[in-house]
Structure formats: structure tokens, C-alpha cells
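Sorry to interrupt, but I need a hand with the structure work. Could you write out one complete protein record for me, on any chain you like? Could you add the entry underneath, on a fresh line?
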Amino acid sequence: MAVICIDAGNTFAKIALMENAAAISQATFPCNDPDGIRDYLQTLPAVEGAIISSVSAPVQEIARLMPPEIPACMELTGDTPAPVRNLYRTPASLGNDRLAAITGAGRLYPKKDILVIDAGTALTFDFLDKDGNFVGGNISPGLNMRFQALHRFTKKIPMVAPSHHYEFIGNSTETAVISGVQNGIIFEINQYIRHFKKQNAETIFVMTGGDIIFFVNKTESIIFAQPNLVHIGLEEIFKFNVKFVKKFS
């Protein structure tokens, strides 16, 4: 049976009805639009339960938007058991989206060394080994954060937006920023790929996040694009804990 998976970030709540690692239905709402979230949830068919990952709104507030007939609803926290073995030294500080994404990758590519690249607000690289150990990862500024930093911390560089079309060498300040930021991220991704391929040539590379459209086809190795990777992981974590899940009061 399907599971409602909600990934509530700082601005938007991304909701997906997941079954067997596939999205049956999905929608995105501003976190400050409870009526829209409630109305959408009312349209969904009978489900096994729901799982909520939130970095903004209290989970209880989101849980109260659920239809009353949903049998179980759980929150993803740093203490939530997961199908992967979490070796992170500070699990409480690990972003829920990172844990869910790595869990989703393990669901899709079992018994493989996997590097998950999340091109979102931050650019993260997380490694899951073939034995199911989440070893850890690295965090650097994401695409728009880099554009904003150049604009904010200089006097003359304008605020520019990412682009699918740009020259390798910019011939104006705007194109130099676009090329510098976007090529810089591509070089960064490629260097991580080279490093992990040296360790194991069969390493799987998976990319998710809102900015994957700018990078997924520009790397030196095949990268599997999985926009719903976090939701796949949320479903897997719910299934792992379903016997112990209780409904929010």
C-alpha cells in the first residue's frame, strides 16, 4: 500500500504518494499554505501511513493536516532507525534530506558503493558503501547560494541567474559569473567522481535536488538522475519502522 511522504523545507513542502519506490502522485506547496496541503491530502486514496521530514514547520502542525483515517504518521529525526547503518558522528545534526536520499539510493542500488550528489540549496556529496554503511559526506554552497554570495559580498557584481546556455569563458561580467559558478560546480562534481572511481570503478553516482537539470548531462561519468530520491528514502524508512509507528495525537 502507498505511503504519503512529505519533505518540508524552509520554503516549500514537497509531497509524494509513494508505492514501491515510484511516485503515484506528487505536488509542491509553500509551507505557509496549510489549506492547499490539506486539500491535496484529502484527494489521495487510502494509504498505509505517512512520514514527515521537516526543517521548518513543526511536524505536529503538518500531521494535523492529514485526513483522520490515516492509520499511522511518523516523523523523521536524527534518532529514527533506518535501513542504512549511520556512521555519522553527529547523527542529530545530519539533515533529514541527506539521510533519506542515501536510504533511497540504497533501495534503488543495493549492495553497491554509491555517491549521492544533491544539487539543492547546498551541494552535498554523501557516500553509502556496498555493505550499507553511510560513511558520511561533504557539504559546499549550492548553485544559487554561490550567485548570491558573489552579488552580496562584492560591490559591482550583479545578481545573475543560472543558465543552460553559456560559453566556457565569459566575455562579460554576467557571463563570467555564470560560467565561473556553473563550471566550478561541474569541475567539483567531476573531481569527486574521479576520486570514488579510483576507489571502486563500479561506484554508482546518483544525483538529486532541484538544480540537477543544470549538471546531470555535463559530467564525465554516467549519473543517474533521481528527482524523487528523498521521497523514495522516506518511503523506505517508513516501511522499516511501520510496526512501531503511531498516529500523532
Observations:
- Residues 114-230 form a domain with the Nucleotidyltransferase; domain 5 fold (CATH 3.30.420.40).
- The CA atoms of residues 11 and 32 lie 8 Å apart.
- The mean pLDDT is 93.
